[in-house]
Amino acid sequence: MARLAIQKVHVGEKDTNCYVIACGDTDEAVVIDPGDDAAKITGQLAKKTVRWICFTHAHPGHTGAKEAIKTATGAATAMHLADATTFLKSADRYLTSGDRLPFGRFELEVLITPGHTPGGLSFKVGNHLFTGDTLMAGKIGRLDLPGANPQQMLLSLHGQLLTLPDNTVVYPGHGPNTTIGAERVGNPYLRIR
Question: Among 173, 78, 166, 183, which Cα is nearest to 127's?
Answer without folding.
Answer: 166
